[in-house]
Write a structure and sequence with these properties.
87 residues; mainly alpha; 66% helix; 0% strand
Length: 87
């Protein structure tokens, strides 16, 4: 098999940005307690927990809106106002 050579421009473009910033004197701040906990464990579980909290919030919102809508429909039926169901 013939070996292919990679042009120098492509090698320079594929250099990681970390190596560029590693030599810079950028002041850094130490990690807080919460950051240390989040960074020490697998971040997948943090993402899953956030997504789960969002889904629970959406379900609660939908259930509350359904209960309110049912209450309004019941009030309208008790008042005898005819409803127009023809969409």
């Amino acid at each position: 098999m013939a070996a292919t050579s990679v042009p120098q421009e492509v090698q320079d473009a594929s250099t990681a940005y970390d190596s560029v910033w590693a030599v810079a004197n950028i002041p850094t701040q130490g990690l807080s307690g919460m950051e240390q906990v989040m960074l020490s464990h697998d971040k997948l579980y943090v993402v899953l927990a956030v997504v789960l909290i969002i889904w629970i919030g959406i379900v609660i919102l939908l259930l509350r809106n359904d209960a309110r809508l049912t209450s309004v429909e019941r009030t309208i039926e008790e008042q005898g106002i005819p409803s127009d169901d023809g969409l």
